[in-house]
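User: Structure please.
Assistant: Input sequence and predicted structure:
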Amino acid sequence: MEEKSAINGIDLRLRHAISLLPQQQSDDAARWSLREFSKRAAIPYRTLQDYLSGSRLPGADALQKMGRMGIDINWVLLGEGEIPNDDESKNIVHIGSVDKKADDIIYNISSGFTDKMNLEYQEDAGIPLPFSILMLIFESFRRSMVALYIRASSEMPNSSRERINKKDMLDLMAIIMEPDMIKSCKKLITDSQDRIPRI
């Protein structure tokens, strides 16, 4: 009974999150249809329908794809944090549609950071972190990287932006961010202790 309730919660939050995604970053942006979202996120349409009907839960791969499209995975999975609203959706950054190369690099750096946090926790506690907490760490790091990249890019002249090596720039940003993100993620893990199984 509780499992069905959790599934219903995820399907409703996912439906709400998809309904708010603008197709482009502009004030008059059209909304994505489910079919368009399915195509852009590379999630089969029938599978997406299963998620939205509550007959199936999204797996790790699907959740990562949704996160890359600008959906707040933390809110969809756990119902925690601010409920997205229409005004906020206009400010969601879909970096993948603007700069695919930077999005891929940020995704890889965020995955590496998440793995590092998981290994460090596993060495101390003897067990890996639960998937839901790994997704929180991944999404938190990714969103911070995207925001920092966009801020830095917007302050750069166009001529410099074209010459800069994005991988080097993003690697440097990750090094600068990492100490604060480690503190933030350790706090997140401490605050989530009730969700971590004991051995």
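The mean pLDDT is 75.
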